[in-house]
Amino acid sequence: MASRCLPAQHAPVRPCLGWQIVDISYPAADCFTMLDNGRGALIRRWRHTITVKPQNGGCLYHDCVEIDAGMLTVPIAIVARLFFRHRQRRLRHLAANGFRDVKAV
């Protein structure tokens, strides 16, 4: 799936970062594994692997993101780290509260 955003003057809330490919697959593994092997205008490689393993009556969730954006790798990795830190904090909060705050889609 590819998406494009409008030029910045038409989307003042967020800058246009160009096109992006999201390539989702579910590789064979001993636990649930989802892989986004994506890329885009700024990022040559965005390999995001999510694994979920049963553990002690619950589960262990793990994100692994590999980024190659040439000279932009460090700043993009910093932004990605902040985003995933926020996401993990939110996920821990939801799990601790039995996912009561999640609304059905």
3D architecture notes:
The chain is α+β, with helices and mostly antiparallel strands and 105 residues long. The chain has one helix and six strands; from the N terminus they run ββββββα. Strands 1, 2, 3, 4, 5 and 6 form a six-stranded antiparallel β-sheet that branches. InterPro entries: START-like_dom_sf (IPR023393).
Give the beta-strand count. 6
Strand content: 35-45%
Counting copies of identical and different chains, the oligomeric state is single chain
Task: Calculate Rg over CA atoms.
Answer: 16 Å
Query: How would you describe the shape?
Result: globular
Structural class of the secondary structure composition?
alpha+beta
- Element order: H for helix, E for strand: EEEEEEH
Uncertain stretches: 1-13
Note the total helix count.
1
Helix content: 10-25%
How far the N terminus sits from the C terminus, by CA atoms, comes to 21 Å
> Biggest sheet: strands, sense, closure?
6 strands, antiparallel
Mean pLDDT: 84
InterPro entries: START-like_dom_sf
Explain the layout of strands and helices:
Blueprint: E1 2-3, E2 20-21, E3 24-25, E4 32-40, E5 45-55, E6 58-68, H1 73-96
List keywords for this structure.
START-like_dom_sf, 6-stranded antiparallel beta sheet, 35% strand, 6 strands, alpha+beta, 105 residues, single chain
Give a quick precis of the structure.
With 105 residues, this protein is an alpha+beta fold. The protein has one helix at residues 73-96; strands at 2-3, 20-21, 24-25, 32-40, 45-55, 58-68. It has 1 helix and 6 strands, in the order E-E-E-E-E-E-H.
